[in-house]
């Protein structure tokens, strides 16, 4: 009798189990890979880049298949409204949990669309904060339709995997969304948002095949857009960026290249101090270099001195360019804000620390040539 009751009890419990009634087949879902935010004619414009994941699996088989990329577009009076309008044309349920990148247009940054996007991001559980955050001056639709190289998936491109090329040539540091939000909400920091450009230089079957490249940064301070600068003015940033792994340095004289360094193991520190109500900074940098190209008879010590001088010049050049547009590109204000916050509160004016061309009192750069071309130097 007891056994019969137990069996009946278990059977009743089984009726309460839902099983997989509410599940969805993964091949019937639309997986968004990248999101774009634009602002056109007083409307928020949403772009989504969708890829077919089955194409990735076939790339590893004996019969490779070119992977197709699809771009969806919707607009509304708000970013949230644009998102819901996209659902109407999506054909199947949209999954947001695989988003890898979010791209803002320059217009979106100028008109404060960042706040709307972050609000939606905070409220919906599928979105993640470990996505790459970028900007662009080009059409987002064209950026999303730009192919990768050698029929690779767009998953393996500057849009979705920026760390791979950055590890070979560290110029413009990529930025995760959680880093963006931290700097966005921090009074002492300036957001340096990398922007992508569609650049020529590649061909496919003798036809132009432009690719994406990081070409500069857009700056936001106190949640306000401050403008964009291309990479020519930003060469000093890499020497203070903790993410920098490997970066080139040319030594020139009269437009002729004397030598080419490849710098690694870059270590930097910024020491802030306040004297007589004015902030000043000492910067120290050390690095190791190899010498893949040498077109002169300069000795090792002289080459190291020239490299150190060029690094100092680039740092000051970037710093002074920032002062021209009212932006602290080197993050000096943040050093005071974090290390001597009481002084920052006394000195700050509207969330900004007063800086001038004399605020950097010293830049000490130590370059050590380790290998690559040393034997050639000794022969000279």
From TrEMBL:
Residues 23-198 form the Spore germination protein N-terminal domain. One of its GO terms (biological process) is spore germination. Coiled coil: none annotated. It is a lipid-anchor. The keyword Signal applies. Keywords: Germination, Lipoprotein, Membrane, Palmitate, Signal. Residues 216-369 form the Spore germination GerAC-like C-terminal domain. Its main location: membrane. InterPro entries: GerAC_N, Spore_GerAC-like, Spore_GerAC-like_C, Spore_GerAC_C_sf. GO terms for cellular component: membrane. It is found in: Membrane. The keyword GTP-binding does not apply. Belongs to the GerABKC lipoprotein family. NCBIfam families: spore_ger_x_C. PANTHER family: SPORE GERMINATION PROTEIN B3. This is Spore germination protein XC.
